[in-house]
Recover the amino acids of this structure.
């Protein structure tokens, strides 16, 4: 070991565990489950990862709503596969969260009692088939913008889960946009259905990228821990700039009279977001908050006897094996 | 906490010739179900040709606090690496 | 004997096989997002996707045979209830998980035996579809058999619930083996499977699993039938109104 290395080591020992931890993150090293971490890091990650997982499984419901009514067999299997992927993503994320010392059942408990949040967008109803297109195109589009940077977040299990999620997610947005293209190129009725869906999902999708930077409480800390790489407003701008040309291309109109290309900025200016609505939905007053929660709680409660049966059976089999061995 | 399905770690061989790699975890009541769940969750896109599952509680992990004594002693054993040994320039491959 | 098989006979024969996959797939897909936990949700969705994939292969073939410029979707969505030839078993509702598994188990056991024969069909397309399906359905059978055992020999509650489902659904199993006139013509022409001949193996398979699962087969000697003639239970109309909703509301459009 060189003199310099020995000196460095001496200095490191005198630093607090927390400083070493923060430096590790600054050097882009990953934190793994058994590594020392500040309690706040653990808690913040449990909150964010579980919120993300909850959003995936609540997100299954508005789309699941149209599986039985999908208009063609091709659309039906694609939608089923997509909703199934969301279950998978929820599962990867719950698993990542469990490495922080909390069980999936505890996380469900938090969801079912309203203690944990999920993405508010899923509290809006899916009223026509075109909503399947709009959700894939806009909601998954916004989600991808949020998620891609998380593939290099500091907590190893979360980053790895996100790599898998992003890889699988890439078909979701295409699936949605393809539905929109087909509708936009279809009969007047179909085009109207597509425009109506865009009108209803546009603003909630913008809200999905989170409150404005001025209102956002977690940003600074999250940036440091690489839970965030860009601010909410930056992400929102990115989403708008990428989506507007896609709407133009298929002849749909973004429902914002103030939307205008700003040559100087090199991006779009856009209208005021109704943050009152956003906070009301977060607080539980969205059109479907109650229905979503009831569906989740029902599935869990009605599944209890099934889960118990499987455990009882496993125990019996285990006992049988032991008896045989004796 | 009652009667919850335990956690299992899933290892998947992507194709013959490669090792099993840790893919993630799942919940299952027994080993048979763990295999089925792992298949349904982690190989939906043709990701594997073989699966191992092991109940998470059976894995013994080293403690990162001991990383110094466990792993650092290997750092200065440079003679274990081929670059430690000098060769005449004429010998191109060895 | 010696009845010549017309295209229409073959199409009817395929409906008798394929409509089961469609309707069971539709029933399973209702559950997506509502299973007892994420792992089971994903597993059952996989089965729904397998079945709907098989359905598409059969219907694409029917579309080709019918030669009227029809598509798989015309066949899936635009028939009237009497024209669907699935058995009553597969249209039965998802009353609870015990029903879902029992329905699946009763169908899988039959389905696998059917495909194992159908892969030898003189009709190459049907043989190929069957061959591919065998792998999928073997897994379904394994999944549903395992769950029959877990529920049957699990807790007292689960035993009771799954036995209730068996008692209710058993009466639909006999129909699986009935031969319609089109089935008979298909068999005579080396295209179809003689389902009557599958009965023994089927009962054996059911008994094996039930023994492990500590489930008893009901005494009933009276069985329900009608699906194969297009006379369905009252559940079917509701299933179809969901299935056909878009195609009926917005006719002649591309999606």
């Amino acid at each position: 070991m060189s003199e310099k290395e020995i000196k460095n080591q001496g200095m490191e020992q005198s630093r607090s565990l927390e400083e070493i931890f923060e430096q590790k993150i600054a050097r882009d090293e990953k934190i793994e489950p058994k590594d020392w971490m500040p309690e706040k890091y653990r808690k913040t990650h449990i909150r964010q990862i579980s919120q993300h997982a909850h959003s995936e499984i609540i997100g299954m419901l508005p789309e699941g709503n149209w599986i039985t009514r999908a208009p063609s067999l091709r659309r039906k299997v694609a939608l089923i596969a997509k909703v199934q992927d969301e279950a998978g993503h929820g599962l990867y994320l719950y698993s990542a969260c469990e490495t922080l010392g909390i069980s999936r059942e505890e996380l469900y408990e938090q969801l079912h009692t309203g203690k944990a949040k999920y993405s508010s967008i899923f509290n809006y109803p899916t009223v026509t088939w075109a909503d399947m297109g709009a959700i894939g195109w806009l909601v998954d589009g916004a989600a991808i913008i949020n998620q891609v940077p998380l593939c290099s977040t500091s907590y190893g299990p979360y980053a790895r889960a996100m790599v898998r999620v992003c890889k699988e997610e890439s078909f979701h947005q295409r699936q949605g946009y393809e539905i929109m293209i087909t509708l936009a190129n279809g009969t007047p009725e179909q085009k109207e259905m597509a425009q109506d869906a865009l009108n209803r999902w546009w603003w909630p999708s913008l809200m999905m990228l989170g409150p404005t930077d001025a209102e956002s409480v977690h940003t600074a800390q999250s940036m440091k821990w690489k839970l965030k790489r860009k601010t909410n407003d930056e992400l929102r701008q990115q989403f708008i700039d990428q989506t507007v040309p896609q709407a133009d291309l298929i002849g749909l109109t973004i429902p914002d009279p103030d939307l205008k290309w700003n040559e100087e900025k090199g991006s779009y200016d856009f209208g005021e977001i109704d943050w009152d609505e956003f906070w009301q939905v977060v607080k539980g007053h969205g059109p479907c908050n109650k229905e979503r929660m009831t569906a989740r709680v029902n599935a869990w409660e009605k599944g209890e006897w099934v889960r118990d049966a499987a455990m009882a059976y496993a125990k019996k089999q285990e006992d049988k094996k032991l008896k045989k061995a004796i | 906490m009652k009667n919850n399905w335990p956690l299992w770690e899933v290892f998947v061989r992507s194709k013959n010739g490669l090792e099993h790699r840790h893919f993630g975890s799942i919940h299952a009541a027994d080993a048979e179900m763990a295999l089925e769940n792992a298949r349904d969750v982690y190989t939906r896109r043709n990701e594997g040709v073989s699966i191992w599952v092991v109940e998470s509680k059976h894995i013994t992990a080293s403690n990162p606090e001991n990383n110094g004594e466990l792993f650092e002693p290997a750092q200065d054993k440079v003679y274990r690496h081929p670059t430690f040994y000098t060769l005449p320039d004429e010998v191109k491959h060895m | 004997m010696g009845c010549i098989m017309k295209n229409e006979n073959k199409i009817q024969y395929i409906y008798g096989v394929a409509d089961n996959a469609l309707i069971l797939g539709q029933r399973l897909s209702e559950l997506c997002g509502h299973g007892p936990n994420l792992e089971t949700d994903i597993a059952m969705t996989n089965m729904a996707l397998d079945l709907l994939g098989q359905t598409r292969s059969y219907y694409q073939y029917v579309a080709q045979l019918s030669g009227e410029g029809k598509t798989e979707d015309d066949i899936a969505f635009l028939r009237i209830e009497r024209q669907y030839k699935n058995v009553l078993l597969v249209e039965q509702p998802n009353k609870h998980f015990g029903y879902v598994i029992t329905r699946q188990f009763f169908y899988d056991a039959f389905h696998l035996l059917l495909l194992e024969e159908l892969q030898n069909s003189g009709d190459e397309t049907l043989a190929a579809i069957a061959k591919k399906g065998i792998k999928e359905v073997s897994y379904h059978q394994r999944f549903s058999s395992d769950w029959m055992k877990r529920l049957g020999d699990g807790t007292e509650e689960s035993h009771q619930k799954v036995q209730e489902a068996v008692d209710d659904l058993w009466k639909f199993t006999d129909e699986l083996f009935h031969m319609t006139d089109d089935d008979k013509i298909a068999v005579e022409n080396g295209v179809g499977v003689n389902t009557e001949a599958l009965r023994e193996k089927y009962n054996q398979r059911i008994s094996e699993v039930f023994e492990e699962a500590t489930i008893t087969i009901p005494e009933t000697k009276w069985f329900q039938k009608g699906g194969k003639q297009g006379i369905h239970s009252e559940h079917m109309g509701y299933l179809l109104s969901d299935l056909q909703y878009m195609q009926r509301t917005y006719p002649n459009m591309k999606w």
In short: Strands of chain A lie at 260-262, 267-269. Chain A touches chain C through 49 residues (CB under 8 Å). The first strand of chain A starts at residue 260 and ends at 262. Chain A has a mean pLDDT of 93.
